[in-house]
Predict the 3D structure of the following.
Amino acid sequence: MDEFEIAEALGDWGAEPGPLYLTLASAVDELARARRLEPGDRLPAERKLARALHVSRGTVVSAYDCLRRRGRLVTRQGSGTVVTGEPDRGRMSPVGGAADPSTTEGFITGTIPGDGIIDLKAAVWTGLEDLVPEDFILSPGRWKEVLVGSGYHPGGLAILRELIAERLSGQGLPTEADEVMITHGAQEAIVLICRSYLGDDGLAVSAELTYPGFMDIVHTLGGRVHTAPMDDMGVDVSRLDRAVRRVRPEVVYLMPNVQNPTGSVMPDGRRRDLEDAVARWSDTVVIDDRTLAELTEDGHVPRPLGSGLPGPMGNVLTVGSASKSLWGGLRIGWIRGRADQIAGLTRMGSVLNFGVSVAGQMIAADLLPRVEGLSAGRRTELIRRRDTMVDALGERLPDWRFKVPRGGLSLWVKLPGIEARRFVEMAQRYGVSLAPGEVSSPDGWWRDHLRLPFGHPPGQLVEAVDRMADAWADLTHRAPAAGRHGVIV
């Protein structure tokens, strides 16, 4: 890009807070991280860029110097100032371009860890005490309703699409059945959206901490993930807005309802700011992932993006799932969007399969009206499990730092002075499988954090914390508690 193209791409960088040269450096760095400026691209001379940006040459000189110190730029005799070819960590997963086997092994192999291993890699709800086997049996009368025609329903059974449309309408997002597609869980929903809109070498934007499965999808499709900062209330909307308008991604992936992995719930004021921003991104598809929306400690289910507004937000695709509210084994998810978007996604889905199992959809249709009652009971149990882990950590590992989340299925824990991957390896020897925090970071950061799921029964959680405490003592060369567990593997 020449100096005028760069000036246009940088947008309103001068309105951002901080010293002018630092905001310019950060804005150029963002273009480079998003690959709008490719490694090897030559930047304009300081004087030319200064004229295009209407700033002093000294501002550009200082910004370039800052970027050289960061390793983003290099100046060579005869070549000028060029963008470096440093590893694009946003394009790779933290283990080098594929899903981290520590988080997917059990799902891929279909096995449950043996030898007494407690598996805390995935943030899932375990145990179905509130559902009985009879809940998964369809009566002959129910079968007669669907044993007609070919049995193929690429967009999903009409009865289930209608039920989900009613639920979304009741949450303030007016929806018709033809605006809903049934998928094999939320994972397939996100895959279909990314396959349809991201394209080869496409760019997606997410919060700096996000669902690892989204990263794996983007990387598998050959795309890249650019990030925006977040705080205790979720993604920083003003900085997200600047990033989206600057790097112009095809897809933005958000979890404003209950964030994974932090469990934060975006407050209403920031949510309204987010909706205002989303309305400005008319050329970008926004995924509103509501997979964890019903897992809030106070029982208040955050509303979908765009609900209650005078008109529809045509660039938002809402993703939901029955995995947390009912049972993951049903593999029932859905996408809500405009009717034309759903028709296109259904055609894309037909390339992969011809629809979700009819039996699974019928069972979900029978159970869906009971979700509110099930959610209330599970919420009580989830809080009990969460508090069990919190209390056990406070007793056995008091130096670990975390905030009790408002929702979700995991704690986001900071380890004092130890890289999480080192601890994960030691914990495995003591019989606990964990995922380091960096697998939730598109940039491979947060290496001193752990995501600790608490969806297991309380007894298993106490046992897991006991084992982790012994592993921590071993790693930090402290004496394990007497009578506790030795090394298992």
Q: What stands out?
A: The longest strand covers residues 316-321. The chain has three domains: 3-86, 91-127+373-475, 133-369.
